[in-house]
Structures are given as structure tokens and as C-alpha cells.
Design brief:
By secondary structure, the chain is an alpha/beta fold. It folds into two domains: 60 residues, Signal recognition particle alu RNA binding heterodimer, srp9/1, CATH 3.30.720; 58 residues, 2,3-Dihydroxybiphenyl 1,2-Dioxygenase, domain 1 (Roll), CATH 3.10.180. The chain has three helices and eight strands, in the order βαβββαβαβββ. The strands form two sheets. Strands 1-4-3-2 form a four-stranded mixed β-sheet. Strands 5-8-7-6 form a four-stranded mixed β-sheet, covered by helices on one side. A hairpin with a 5-residue loop joins strand 7 and strand 8.
């Protein structure tokens, strides 16, 4: 199967809160309407659409993951240095994100983990070349 583009679709409770959170972190907006807010991540503009939960139910047969009990996916966001990991940690805290893994070394890398206001999980990872 050949495809040109891949993106993610996630459910959220509050579009305004989600839009504010990702704007505060500096991600590039990709559009907003009454059912979704969308952002581009990384140099390749990986798109994540955040749909209101009611609109999202059709896609998952009303079986969205309970993010208080587990993970659906953890997105990794690259950092260029340990200092940048710490800068992003502060930005996430200031924007209202929840830190689930404090900054720490992992093999030769360094990372921390956070969740957005709806519980979608990310880690910020510096991995030296």
C-alpha cells in the first residue's frame, strides 16, 4: 500500500482549550471549525486533527480509549539538545500540560513525557547523533 500522507485523528472534550494549549506550545495551526482543531508537527508537517468527542464517535464505534486508564499512542517530538528538552518542559507546564515522566536519561538520549489537557501523550526526546 502506497500513501503520500499520514495524519492522526484524536478526540477531545473542549476545542477551545485544545487550540489554546497547542498554540501556546507554538505548533503551526492547520485550521479550526466547530468540530475540529488541527495542527502541524515537525518539518514534514505531520497533521493531528483534534475532533470533539461527539463527532469522533462514528470513527471508533463509540469505543474511544479511556486515557485515564491507558494509552492510545505516545507521539515523540524531537529536540536538538538537553537544554531544549528543559525549555519545552517549562513551556508544557506553563501551557497546562501534565508531566507523567520527569526529565531523565534513556540509553544515550534524554527525554520527558507529558499529556495534553485531554490525556493524549507525548514525549520530547533529545537523541544525539
Amino acid at each position: 500500500m502506497k500513501t503520500k500522507k499520514i495524519w492522526a485523528n484524536l478526540a477531545v472534550e473542549d476545542l477551545a482549550r485544545t487550540t489554546k494549549f497547542y498554540n501556546e506550545l507554538g505548533f503551526k495551526p492547520n485550521g479550526t471549525n466547530e468540530e475540529l482543531t488541527s495542527f502541524c508537527f515537525g518539518d514534514d508537517d505531520f497533521i493531528i486533527h483534534f475532533f470533539i468527542k461527539e463527532r469522533f464517535k462514528w470513527a471508533v464505534n463509540d469505543e474511544a480509549a479511556d486515557l485515564q486508564k491507558g494509552n492510545e499512542i505516545i507521539f515523540s517530538l524531537s529536540a536538538e539538545s538537553v537544554d531544549e528538552v528543559h525549555q519545552r518542559l517549562l513551556a508544557v507546564k506553563n501551557a497546562g500540560g501534565r508531566i507523567f515522566a520527569e526529565p531523565q536519561s534513556f540509553e544515550k538520549g534524554y527525554f520527558f513525557g507529558f499529556s495534553d489537557p485531554d490525556g493524549h501523550k507525548f514525549n520530547v526526546l533529545y537523541w544525539p547523533k
